[in-house]
Design brief:
It is built from twelve helices and no strands. It is mainly α and about 290 residues long. The chain is globular.
């Protein structure tokens, strides 16, 4: 039964009933957690660490960099702000961003269960679908903010140190700064989409277990397993169905013309896996017996 004070709090100054659990409430709750502040803070610190590594490290002339677009990013990272941002995306997308997205999505429900607060949230009362939807959107916003902070800091630090120069690549024409900014934004967007696979897997595990570490770690481990299997050429076309097979397709943005095929297939793959995992998460949560 709702008390008078509960009813009063749910009615705004206009007299309209406010939702019992809003997105703003969840965003503020997530922002108050140390893991959120640490993760977002590291997104700002990482580009600065990379910048210092270039400043105080060796010239790396005796270290082979291989070939292709990846070698281009390494060799040309200090030739301008756009190249530095692309290099920062390269070194962070394969693992760091995977962990951060898994953290935001895998911790969101499992942590409430581990603290014993999940059943109290549902007793406000909050419909289960609404609660899960709000938490999903909040996790999406946190991950998007992490990407914006990472790329924004890399662009700012790289431009201040190396200037706003054209984007260069060994497999593409030199791109003017305006076009370079569009390519950096496109690469960031593609990485955000590709991260949905591990994010929604972590979200599914989060509603399945009461252990946040299990949800986050399970999603990351399965992502790593997929990456390992993707290196086995003997699997043939089976690799095309692995969640991580197209994770690096964004380097096609460094080519002239842009290599869209792998990026389109990667986008379809990521959205398909995300939809499956997300649907299973809602199906599981709506039917789960909440005892913690």
């Amino acid at each position: 039964m709702m008390t008078t004070s509960t009813v009063d709090r749910s009615i705004g100054s206009t007299g309209r009933v406010r939702p019992p659990y809003s997105l703003a409430t969840e965003v503020l709750r997530q922002a108050s957690r140390p893991r959120t502040r640490i993760a977002l803070g590291f997104m700002v610190v990482l580009p600065l660490i990379i910048l210092l590594a270039f400043e105080f490290g060796g010239d790396g002339d005796d270290t082979p960099t291989g070939g292709g677009a990846f070698a281009s990013l390494v060799d040309l990272a200090t030739t301008g702000g756009a190249n530095f941002a692309m290099f920062t995306l390269l070194v962070s997308s394969s693992f760091l961003l995977v962990v951060v997205s898994a953290l935001f999505f895998g911790d969101t429900v499992a942590s409430e269960a581990s603290w014993g607060t999940l059943r109290y949230l549902l007793a406000i009362p909050v419909p289960r679908a609404r609660l899960l939807g709000v938490k999903l959107v909040a996790a999406l916003l946190s991950t998007a903010l992490a990407l914006v902070l990472l790329v924004g800091t890399a662009l700012l630090a790289g431009t201040l140190r190396y200037g706003w120069e054209p984007l260069r690549s060994t497999v593409a024409d030199e791109l003017d700064p305006g076009t370079a900014l569009v390519r950096v934004a496109a690469a960031t967007g593609y990485i955000a989409v590709s991260l949905l696979t591990v994010a929604m897997l972590a979200f599914l595990l989060s509603v399945t277990t009461d252990a946040p570490l299990g949800a986050v770690g399970g999603a990351v481990l399965l992502y790593i397993l997929s990456s390992i299997l993707d290196q086995i050429d003997a699997l043939g076309v089976v690799r095309d169905f692995l969640p991580t097979h197209f994770s690096d397709a964004w380097v096609g943005l460094l080519s002239t013309p842009i290599q869209w095929d792998a990026m389109i297939r990667g986008t379809i793959s990521a959205l398909t896996y995300a939809t499956i995992f997300g649907t299973l998460a809602f199906w599981r949560f709506l039917r789960k017996d909440i005892v913690s």
